[in-house]
Amino acid sequence: VAARQQEEEHRLEAERQAALATQVQQLEHMQQTVQASRAAAEGADAQVNAADDYSRAVAQQTEADQLFARQNYPGAHARYEEARAGFAHAREQAQLLTLKVTVERARADMQVAQKAALLVTADTLAAGLMREAMAAEQQADTALTNGEFASARQSYETAQQQYARAEAQARTEQQRQMQR
Predict the structure, then answer these.
(1) Buried b (16+ CB within 10 A) or exposed e, 144-158
(2) Global confidence as pTM
(3) How many CB atoms lie within 10 A of CB 61?
(4) Is pLDDT at 150 greater than 90 in this prediction?
């Protein structure tokens, strides 16, 4: 009877050790996943462009590491999951800010091209190109209002190119008129 009881205790201990080993493996995998998520956030400059979200995720990762070291596996699991989600959110926010900045840059470039075209009276000397440029600008403004940043950037770039073409056409027309 004592031998059976000891055998049962060894079996239960082996099962417990196997379960712990599985938990440790899962947490080590989560550590790697969190680290990959952190690297992706850093690749998007989240430390600068989403500093609060990034810092919060770093703190969660640090807490998870401490819980893991103290063998508080359920607590570590929860914090690693929070850190992974936090880094993913920080990356998304940083990418969004970067996209907004590129949209504003494209818009500013388009406005410079528009002013240059108007200075050479492209609105009368290259009216067709100016209408195309204004249509692209309108599309960009609508896309920006709808939060469609990639589309807005592309349309502002198209408008900028059209305004530049209108300016060039207007200059050519002015030179032709002067030669008469």
Answers:
(1) beeebbebbbbbbbb
(2) 0.76
(3) 22
(4) yes
